[in-house]
Amino acid sequence: MHRGGSLHAAHLAYETWGNLNARADNALLILTGLSPSAHAASSPEDPSPGWWEAMIGPGKAIDSNRYFIICVNSLGSCKGSTGAASINPGTGKPYQLDYPELCLEDIAVSAHELVRHLGISRLRALVGPSMGGMSSLAFAVLYPGMAPNLVLISTAPHSLPFATAIRSLQRECIRRDPRWLDGRYAADAWPEQGFRLARKLGMVTYRSAHEWRGRFGRKRVSEPARGAFEREFEVEAYLDAHADRFVGSFDPNCYLYLSRAMDWFDLADHGGDVDNALGQMQVKRALVIGVPSDILFPIEQQREIAEGLRSAGAVVDFFALPSIQGHDSFLVDFERFAPPVADFLGCL
Amino acid sequence: MHRGGSLHAAHLAYETWGNLNARADNALLILTGLSPSAHAASSPEDPSPGWWEAMIGPGKAIDSNRYFIICVNSLGSCKGSTGAASINPGTGKPYQLDYPELCLEDIAVSAHELVRHLGISRLRALVGPSMGGMSSLAFAVLYPGMAPNLVLISTAPHSLPFATAIRSLQRECIRRDPRWLDGRYAADAWPEQGFRLARKLGMVTYRSAHEWRGRFGRKRVSEPARGAFEREFEVEAYLDAHADRFVGSFDPNCYLYLSRAMDWFDLADHGGDVDNALGQMQVKRALVIGVPSDILFPIEQQREIAEGLRSAGAVVDFFALPSIQGHDSFLVDFERFAPPVADFLGCL
After folding, report:
1. For domain A163-257, which architecture applies?
2. CB contact at 8 A, A262 and A166
3. Do B161 and A200 touch (CB under 8 A)?
4. Residue ranges of domains in chain B
5. Contact A168 B239 (CB under 8 A)
């Protein structure tokens, strides 16, 4: 592991769409945000819709007729890859906080092992939204020339203090839950209240105030909660609904590990500063997209990446899309996101 | 009380600076944000610096040589005025959640009683920053003509869903603390961890990402906390320091009451819509100030107030100041805030 320690007999969950060609030169790797699984799109084996269903498939922006598409569940997550909730083969019990310190570099290194295991010596394209974009930057700087074409979406070379403050509070919400027990909670006694708070705080930063103003305004719920100071407004019910969906489907310790890895990551650690690191990647073409309504990964950070890659000699397309859904726009505003991705990948 | 119930033998804490003239027509009332006391500036009786020390005093922007300045601790607070932490004379114990439902209208009505008690039938000016601006709007609409000159700073006619979401999460942080006990905590066993989280989340929205980027960047603390997932970055230490100062000096139940009152308040309840309400106030002149870096009370809301008052026939000065400190700018960026306030109050 990047900061020391090791994992034995670790697993990586991944899914693929399309076919690897004979020269093994049409592979496209997707690294994900903090919470998604490898199930980015439906397939004959699993026909349920994936988290990027609108973007991936035959004839879609990420075209499985053209590319052999791989999506990997990040190392440290809990959707099939080995994370803090997995069984430690050394003890027969879940790792919990015995899991080694996790970095985005570890996610990149493990994804690279997967790619090599699939017989691919060079990716045609590497696609990373959000945390997946940070992991992609780690991949590109650790394996220069391995990913000559990058698609970086709503991401950053490192976290700025506003984002770190939000994530720190999310982690504290989990840690302060009396049921967290320094990570030693039982499978049937999760620190649910703290995790709900963490998820709700996340949602506040994933969307935008502008979107919510139009969507919720000052609307009240039809049946207010009965307890003192409990929910009355629709925006509160919306946050509750998101917490309902997330809690129970993601492990709180895994969340802590991945969240901290995002705050730790700094592309500048690989080469002294961000521009030097970008210059080492041997990137030929890049598509960098962001939205100005994103408060978690502000558009200036995508601009910084685009300009750094351009200075390093890459041909870079940069788009600041006017989506109003904030950081989550790439998960919902396909009308705006699909065309530039399709154009870029169609010309490689 | 505005929503029913009543308080008996309630107190209001207030401080004054300067002298009321013979015609009692030089009074200026300040209504405060959520947490400040009535001690807005030092005085012979209390020489400690007040929370708006740079703004109030002889020759300052709010000039005590010219005005008889009154600052009142909001009803429902815990700085001398009767709130949930006060003793209920009916039981001899703290009200806690037996305190009646509190609205900003109650803060306005009680402040009006104070003004009348001081022999003042009409204010020369009413000054309200943040929640105090919302309370001032309540005052102005409940007592038309009583406050012909308004100074409204970083405030709003009602909360938008982003601000409500943040406040809802702050309240939930307090409510979920196992020591909250439905408000029946003992004086020596406050729900401190939940209240710390609430305060930290507040600070994230009181300042701006831009300010923090320059101030903290990715700086680490010299001595990281030892526990797993605890603080490492300076921005985390900054939030801890703010929580240290606040917790122990403000009552969590009072915080809940005031926070909910802000979300409940809607100027549009007084006249059908915001513009009608603004039109009823009989305001002659107004100064409306905001900062574009404020994410809690966005500048559009101050613009809405300014335009509404202008449509109602008032002479309105509107300033969008380029302060980078977000909502809290009026508490720190006096170089920008003092001149327009001094100009406005100097000409009344």
Report:
1. Orthogonal Bundle (1.10)
2. no
3. no
4. 14-159+266-346, 163-256
5. yes
